Amino acid sequence: MAYYPLFLDLTGRPCVVIGGGPVAERKVEGLLAVGASVTVVSPSLCPALEALARERRIRHVGRVYAPGDLAGYQLAFVATDDGEVNQAVSREGRARGVWVNAADDPAHCDFILPSVLRRGDLVVAVATGGASPALSRAVREELEAYFTQDYAALAEIVVEVRRELKGRERVPGADAWARALNGDLRRLIAEGRREEAKAHLLRRLGAGACG
């Protein structure tokens, strides 16, 4: 099965998680981190999810999944070890047009979750089409050594420079950006010389620090 990679804006969008254990906890944490509105359906919750429910950061429906629980949601995540629940949620999702992800059960997934490396606004996602989550995780861990925390600063500077250039009605092409994002820029960032790095990038893009 081939998957189309994409990133979704889930700010304020209603999502439901079926299950209340550690796997569900990871799904919920990821959804809250991007601003989704989260409901958890489960008879019980692990301590972390209990705390989120008490703080009203999630809505808790304290029972097992029942047909109809996907109504009004845009994404559904199944985090149980019950194959029958996976199948039932997948079937309801198809009927309602709700995308479903069932943990460790690609056959009942409309989408899968990659192994993710974050460095500020820079996000690197690794996936194997559901064939081997362990391999995805291993590759991501290898990439962590290459994509150091300096890349978070690099991403911030690039965002600022793009904003300034748009304000000046300058739109450098892809080739110009490729040349500008060179070793000297990375060196300045690694040395903590942030403003010099920004000025260097502006110069390389033909804008200069003062326009």
Overall description:
This protein is α/β, with parallel strands linked by helices and 211 residues long. The protein folds into 3 domains: 14-112, NAD(P)-binding Rossmann-like Domain (Rossmann fold, 3-Layer(aba) Sandwich), CATH 3.40.50.720; 114-147, 2-Layer Sandwich (Double Stranded RNA Binding Domain); 150-204, no CATH class. Helix content is 44%, strand content 15%. The chain has helices spanning 22-33, 47-54, 83-96, 133-146, 150-167, 174-180, 183-190, 194-204; strands at residues 14-18, 37-41, 59-61, 75-78, 99-102, 115-119, 122-126. A 5-stranded parallel beta sheet has the order 3-2-1-4-5, sandwiched between helices. Strands 6-7 form a two-stranded antiparallel sheet. Strand 6 and strand 7 form a beta hairpin. The longest helix has 18 residues, at 150-167. It starts with 13 loop residues before the first strand and ends in a 7-residue tail after the last helix. The mean pLDDT is 93.
Question: Topology of this protein?
Answer:
Layout: E1 14-18, H1 22-33, E2 37-41, H2 47-54, E3 59-61, E4 75-78, H3 83-96, E5 99-102, E6 115-119, E7 122-126, H4 133-146, H5 150-167, H6 174-180, H7 183-190, H8 194-204
Parallel strand pairs: 1-2, 1-4, 2-3, 4-5
Antiparallel strand pairs: 6-7
Helix pairs in contact: 5-8, 7-8
